[in-house]
Amino acid sequence: MWIACYYLPDFAIASERILHPNFENVPLALLGEDGLLQAVSLEATRAGVRLGQTPSAARVFCPDLVVVPYNLSAYRQKAEPLWDRIACDSSCVEPISPEVCLAGFVGAGVRERAIGVAEDLHSIADVAVHMGMSRSRFTAHIAAQHDPGGAPVIVPEGTEASLIARVPVDQLSHLNRQERERLQRLGIRFLGDILTIPEEETRRVFRERSALLRRLALGQDRDPVRALWPPDSEEHVLNLDFGVTEEGLLQEAIRQCATGVAEKLQHRGRRSRSVTLALRSEAGRAHVRTEILNAPEDDAAALMRVALRLLSRMRSGPGLTFDAPPTSVALRVLVAEPAESVQRLLFDENRPSEVLPHERQIRLNGAIEHVRERFGRKSVGQATALRRREPFQLWTYPLTRRLNETIQVLTNSLGVPLRYQRHGRWWDVAQVQNRWSEAGWKYGHLEQGMVFRVETPSLGLAEIRRCGNEWRLTAVAD
Question: Model's pTM, two decimal places?
């Protein structure tokens, strides 16, 4: 599979200027959550502002710089038409960010199709589109960043190392600060320099991470492109003949939509993680609310409760406050991933390209030892250590000895046996293991009673039956 990376560095700036037209033709920068500039406009770049700077450092070069927060949700919404266009030619689309998207291409005419997608993205977004194409996603991303904008960069198979040889190691997100410092001490400034060092030396310094570094230096990774777009969803739409003004009719329409979606989910054996309620009024205006569930659901009643909460959020007071009565009700849910893949994403932070199975075990052991050295030997324990063999006695008392003896029983205020007398000896009841009611015909009439399975302090079992005011011992253990 060929992997294409589409890189739109100016997309966030263009989207912000669409949302706020007053930012047009002014130096603009977008501030990330880490307090560093995540996107810079062309006007700010010409003044000397660079990515990764702090706002105070950037204003030294450009005093008129306008800094606004990076609005990820708004930019992703603007990027959805671009991802839809890529999905028309590729069945495997993975959006990384509003500016970066990966796509897998198979079949004939791969290069022409990928270039055609890039041209359409340029016409849709009206910004420069950089495209890189390779057999690995890492090399494709690097190639897209090196694309000058005039023509896509196609990396033939086997020539990946020559392209990424001059990539600075400081740009690798795979490495932490300590690993970058180790590379600097070895005199490694670029990825190609890693191949000039003997493999034994890199293994001694980086241990299990040495295999990852050499694979990156060769431009070979095994990370596949995940099919994340379009999102897997189920929807049920109910178009009404006239606007609904009664609360009961509107809730009934929502209930039918919830039932339809639940049937589709149960038929597929899947659950939903996000619920969206969309109402369209007679005036054509759409009212949409979305809620992310705490746990996946596939029950119609649960989806109905979520939909009613979304309906209440659409109102500003009692009664419907829409501009016109709704004529269309739609309930859409995002299908959650299977439990196996969700567990893998939650509990396994190692990507497939980074480690092999035996390397993953080495990394796990190293992480456990690090935590134990810092927080104590008992701070981390494995599940295998909790599995211990301990002998214990299993007492089994089959009540195979059937009796029918009249006995005397002392009970508490609730009628539960406390002591019973048999053969002139009183036996204490340690606990009542079970109780149930029985009924049967005796001498032509229906006789009802309660049966208690009791345990004595000597671990003996017995069944005591009460019929009216009479108590009988019906069974004991051998």
Answer: 0.59
